[in-house]
Amino acid sequence: MVSEAEPTQHISRDDVRDTIGRIWKEVLRLEELGDGDNFFELGGHSLTASQAIARISRTLRVEVPMADFFERPTVDDLTDFVTRHQESAAQASVAHAPAAHAPAAQLATVRAAAALEPAGLTPAPALGHEKGAST
Predict the structure, then answer these.
(1) Mean pLDDT, contiguous 10-residue spans, the chain (135 residues)
(2) Cα Rg for the chain, rounded, in angstroms?
(3) What is the pLDDT of residue 52?
């Protein structure tokens, strides 16, 4: 089971399912819950769905739009949705990571420029690349 303090990047599908089940049992005040039980047939409604969505977001770090929650009203269906989105987020973070083969000086320049932008500053042009400079 996952607690709010644990990182959720690499949790198993079983842990996601257990966490969603625990959240549903808390929100719906149930003792027992099957993976195929329908949230709304168990007494859930839009307010309890909002509570479950907020807890899922906080615990599993995945935003579940209300429409997607309504379309996936079982623990199994919602587990599939959450694990797919976690995998997509993990792949996106790898895709946006700096290239391992990029020269260190180039990465340092990019980081320095990024640090200056919020303050409204711009980095000085590299030597030999000033306007009007001849090479």
Answers:
(1) 49 94 97 94 97 96 95 96 84 56 54 55 51 52
(2) 23
(3) 98
Handedness of CA 17, 23, 27, 32 (dihedral sign): positive
Q: Which tokens hold the place of 87?
A: 């995998």
For 67, 107, 108, 122, the CA distances from 36, given in Å and listed in that order, are 19, 49, 51, 56
Amino acid found at 115: A
Task: For residue 118, count other CB atoms closer than 10 A to its CB.
Answer: 7
Which candidate, 81, 45, 89, places its Cα nearest to that of 65?
81
Residues forming a β-bridge with 38: 74
Assigned token pair, 73: 């009203």
CATH of domain 1-120: 1.10.1200.10
Helix (H, G, I), strand (E, B) or coil at 42: coil
